[in-house]
Design goal:
The protein is mostly beta strands and 133 residues long. It has no helices and 13 strands.
Length: 133
Amino acid sequence: MAATSDQFTLSRSGAEYGYPVKGATRIFARTLVALTSAGLAVPAGTAGAVKIAGLSLHHADNRDGADAGGIVRTERGTYALSFDVAPTAANLRAAVYAVDDVTVSLDSSSGARLQVGTLDGIEAGTPWTRVSS
């Protein structure tokens, strides 16, 4: 049904979200976080992960807890992540994939790695990845 009056719609920037942490898991601050199909946060590169959530804003230690025993806040943005092989200008706007929670690659490993985002730029030799997945 079409609106018949002004609407109040909740909004947010969309760049920061909190996710429940998988049991027996520790996520270090400022590392890549992935999600399982159950929506539980794990370090990127963990088997069974299905999507990259973003970069963790803090340390989340749930090693002694059950699934959802804590929350990790993540954000999306542009970061100077470590590449396994240094990209060049020819790689700008190419897809970037998670090797683990601190390393990214231009190689998808035949589709085995989750896409983190894209190579946004290279400045003074530092590659910048736009985490957008």
